[in-house]
Write a structure and sequence with these properties.
alpha+beta; Ribosomal Protein L9, domain 1; Ribosomal Protein L9, domain 2; 2 domains; 3-stranded antiparallel sheet; 4 helices; elongated
Length: 149
């Protein structure tokens, strides 16, 4: 089943993308929640017309994302202090929420859902990837250190 996404769906695609999904996923989740519509011929034509009319807005959004990526590319590595056991393993894990909060402290508002990283469970230096736009992503270096008791 082909559907047109009406909003960004993590792991599937971005707004206005035409994607192929399994019938049950489309009928039982995407369409009822308003995240997608069936990609009929008329829906595809109206999408093409709408995209043509919004081209300059989309270009501005992309340029804003590129500017933000440039600023993020020049930041110092983020330092996240957390409680650590005697053998260097941290209690819990560092995830996208922690990265998003630290970026917010520096003045960068990035949604945690746009940040990809594996859960970090040990002290060390890592990289997270922030997807700012369909075509723009930036690596964010961060370091997990032991919290002073």
């Amino acid at each position: 089943m082909e559907v047109i996404l009406k909003q960004n769906v993590h792991g599937l695609g971005y707004k206005d993308d035409i994607v192929k999904v399994k019938d049950g996923y489309g009928r039982n989740y995407l369409i009822p929640t308003g995240k997608a519509v069936i990609a009929s011929v008329s829906a595809k034509k109206s999408l093409a017309e709408e995209l043509k009319q919004r081209a300059h807005k989309l270009e501005k959004i992309k340029n804003d994302a590129l500017a933000l990526a440039e600023k993020l590319g020049g930041i110092q590595p983020i330092v996240i202090a957390t409680k650590v056991s005697a053998n260097g393993a941290i209690y819990g894990s560092v995830n996208a929420t922690h990265i998003s909060e630290e970026l917010a402290k520096q003045g960068f508002e990035i949604d945690r859902k746009a940040i990809d990283l594996k859960d970090v469970k040990a002290v060390g230096t890592y990289k997270a990837v922030a997807h700012l736009h369909k075509e723009v992503s930036v690596e964010i270096p961060f370091e997990v250190v032991a919290e002073e008791a």
